[in-house]
């Protein structure tokens, strides 16, 4: 089924992003900016460390990548390690960049787990690195409008020849029962979002992003599909930090062109230097969609299944989204319409 954007036709119950889908482009990434390499040691607090490193060696996993994962989940006051005995994994509800996304029960509460598959498109070593990058971005985050990260499920085959079926690696999140913002706006239910609802949603997204930017983290993939809604009031949860990067100084230099093309800033579309302004651009696109209840750049998306039409229009021709019609503003906000058009 073709989505309104023309680039992502996957229906999402709870979307944590898929950098291999038509709606999200990504090339291999070679590091995490701003973070010093972990020391080469094998003395984490993870109780099954020997099993973990034996598994890593047999699967060509970079030892330092696994070391950093084990260190992050097993040290400090807030341990993020989840043992298999604590969680019951249920049915798959979606597919993601790591593998499958499943419902689960964790300590009596419904959650979602993003499970690593041994057969991911980028290969297991690259997938483990991607898990490390997302874990590094998620671990310090605690905000009411960012998806709740519960921890990481870890299980490794016993050293010396355990079954590969004993392997489990996954990120566990709160369950958001309201789906994603894209579906709410464009899948026939946009009329259910009042102007007041949309203003609140916009404010909650902005509050979450201000918090993220205060930590010198760029999300890099802010889009309507990565805004989850939950509870009877459809409270916002910004999700999918798989492309998020912490940066030092004024700019972040990426070796990738990654993100959802419809929301990417000109410098992101062309692989330039990035800072938080790239997320501000994406937020602007989201605000336009929230006001108009129309998918951004729909005419360009229909021209092809990649970012090239956007590069030509936005970067080369400097095209911008049209100013919203004044009729879209309620009478109480009448003064905002001329200001929006002037901007």
UniProtKB/TrEMBL annotation:
PROSITE patterns: PROTEIN_KINASE_DOM, PROTEIN_KINASE_TYR. Residues 1-26 are annotated as: Disordered. Residues 87-343 form the Protein kinase domain. GO terms for molecular function: ATP binding; protein serine/threonine kinase activity. It comes from the Eukaryota. InterPro entries: Kinase-like_dom_sf, Prot_kinase_dom, Ser-Thr/Tyr_kinase_cat_dom, Ser/Thr_Kinases-Pseudokinases, Tyr_kinase_AS. PANTHER family: SERINE/THREONINE-PROTEIN KINASE TNNI3K-RELATED (PTHR44329). This is Protein kinase domain-containing protein. It comes from Cryptomonas curvata.
